[in-house]
Amino acid sequence: MVTALLHGEDLSRNKAIVFVLIAAILWSTSGLFIKIIDLNPFTIAGARGFIAAIFMLIILNKRLNFNWTLPQVAGGFCYAGAMITFVVATVMTTAANAILLQYTMPVFTAIFGLWILKEAVTRFDWVIIAIVIAGMALFFFDELTLDGMWGNLIAILSAVFFALLIIFLRMQKSGSPVETVILGNIITFLVCLPFLIQEPPDSASVLPLLYLGIFQLGLPFAIYSVALKFITAIDAVLIQTIEPLLNPIWVFLIVGEEPGSWAIVGGAIVLITVTIRNVFTNRKTTKKAPT
Q: How far is residue 159 CA from its own chain's centroid?
């Protein structure tokens, strides 16, 4: 069924929702596998990016449009920045902090949209931004080590990179995100290549890295990008919230890592607020769309 999906089979809404749900669950395993791999985070990010790029080039089996425009190349670099900083943050702080702070990305997207694309930011958006910033601040109330503090800041930087990626994707009027993501994975590999040479993966890390590149990153993005065409934006928004919810649960169940109490409160505020904002924005867009 996955093969048929990737080759353009039409899907019912229910089947498409199942595929997006599968993608979200696979994405949510990133924290667990990053935690159990005993390698430099740059080595992990580089190997994952290389494997994901090769896998996506093989399974998509389509004519890719690398037009090398500024938005496509800049988007690739921003994607690479987001991937690298997320892995580093996950290693340095808790998986919960890394994924939930990264989930603040829509706030930065609104700010960059105002600055770069001249998109209007409503009063509602400013209220959402203020609430999310307050939620972000709570992550720093826990008793963090110096590494944990830096990990939180790097997780926020990952959200900034993701927000810029969204902006550059919007600037590609006739482009698709697939080329930008593949390019971003290649850039990730090239940036991290010195670390891969200095500390190559050992035999114990090969299988976890293959999982990260194929099943956690490459496959879910491929099926998500296709299935997204057959569901509403609100469906996608609600299903995607599964990733930041499950990510720290897998880590707690297998590794035993517990997020701080303030991080749980802050994460709940961020998750609920961003979800409300995304649902509200997509409903508003749907109502304005011509019928």
A: 9
Closest C-alpha among 203, 147, 176 to residue 75:
176
Q: Residue 219: which of 16, 100, 51 has the closest Cα?
A: 51
Neighbours of 204 (CB within 10 A): 11
Task: Estimate to the nearest angstrom the gap between the alpha carbon of 226 and the chain centroid.
Answer: 17
* pTM of the shown model: 0.89
Convert the pLDDT of each residue in 105-160 to its tens digit: 888 988 888 888 887 888 888 898 999 999 999 999 887 788 889 999 999 999 99
| Residue 188 CA: distances (Å) to CA of 81, 108, 193, 226, 289 | 8, 22, 8, 23, 37
Contact between residue 199 and residue 40 where contact means Cβ atoms under 8 Å apart: yes
Give 202's contacts (C-beta < 8 A, 6+ positions apart). 39
Q: Name residues whose C-beta falls within 8 Å of residue 131's C-beta, 6 or more positions apart in sequence.
A: 269, 273
Q: Where in the chain are the domains?
A: 2-288
Measure the CA–CA gap between 249 and 199, rounded to whole angstroms. 30
Burial, 43: exposed, middle or buried (Cβ in 10 Å; 0-12, 13-18, 19+)? buried
Question: Dihedral of CA 237/80/227/211: which sign?
Answer: negative
Compute the distance between CA of residue 178 and CA of residue 223 in angstroms, rounded to an integer. 11
User: 247: burial class by Cβ within 10 Å (0-12, 13-18, 19+)?
Assistant: buried
* 142-167 burial code (b ≥16 CB/10 A, e <16): bebeeebeebbbbbbbbbbbbbbbbb
59: its two tokens: 């399974």
